[in-house]
Amino acid sequence: MLENQYAATTHQWVQPISENEVWVGITDPAQEALGDVVYIELPDAGKVVNAGDSIGQIESVKAASDIRSPVSGRLLACNLALEETPEQVNEAPYQTWVYHLSVDPAQLQQELQALMAPAAYARWLEQQDA
Predict the structure, then answer these.
(1) Which residues, at least 6 apart from 17, have a Cβ–Cβ distance to it below 8 Å?
(2) Could you tell me if residue 16 is inside a domain?
(3) Is the pLDDT of residue 36 over 90?
(4) Which regions of the chain does DSSP assign to beta strands (E)?
(5) Which residue, 5, 41, 46, 83, shows the most beta carbons closer than 10 Å to its own?
(6) Number of domains within the chain
(7) Is 79 exposed, middle or buried (0-12, 13-18, 19+ CB in 10 A)?
């Protein structure tokens, strides 16, 4: 994970890009578990989501899985390049955002406290493997 990203136990990451905007993607362990990603279902811009909501689906040669939002906000945009080249998620999971949210700064700060910074996520993953 990148230093300024936070992970949820559902294996999505969130990266603040300004006081009131974030990018969201899936973590490396998630893409590894899925295998080769072949399709990503993206929602329409304008949708309001709460932390934990399913915002779309990701499909691979092995399985289909919900993409959950680790934070609350209004959907500004989806990474439409993923419709043509969903394998970007496999190739660079921490550089490939899936969707872009407008967030309330105070609420974001509260919700980030429930997520894990890179070192905490790494420790959590180790505990899951134990």
Answers:
(1) 23
(2) yes
(3) yes
(4) 6-7, 12-18, 21-26, 37-41, 48-49, 54-60, 64-68, 73-78, 99-102
(5) 5
(6) 1
(7) buried
Taking phi first (over 0 means left), then psi (-120 to 50 degrees means alpha), and beta for anything else, what does residue 61 get? alpha
Give the CATH number, domain containing residue 70.
Answer: 2.40.50.100
Q: In whole angstroms, what is the distance from residue 33 CA to residue 31 CA?
A: 5
Q: What is the C-alpha to C-alpha distance for residues 58 and 37, in angstroms, rounded to an integer?
A: 7
d(CA 126, CA 65): 22
> Distance between CA atoms of 2 and 25, rounded to whole angstroms?
12
pLDDT digits (tens, 9 = 90+) for 48-71: 999 999 999 999 998 899 999 999
Number of residues that make up the chain: 130
Mean pLDDT of the chain: 94
- Residue 30 belongs to domain spanning: 6-124
Rg of the chain, C-alpha, whole Å: 14
Confidence (pLDDT) at 130: 67
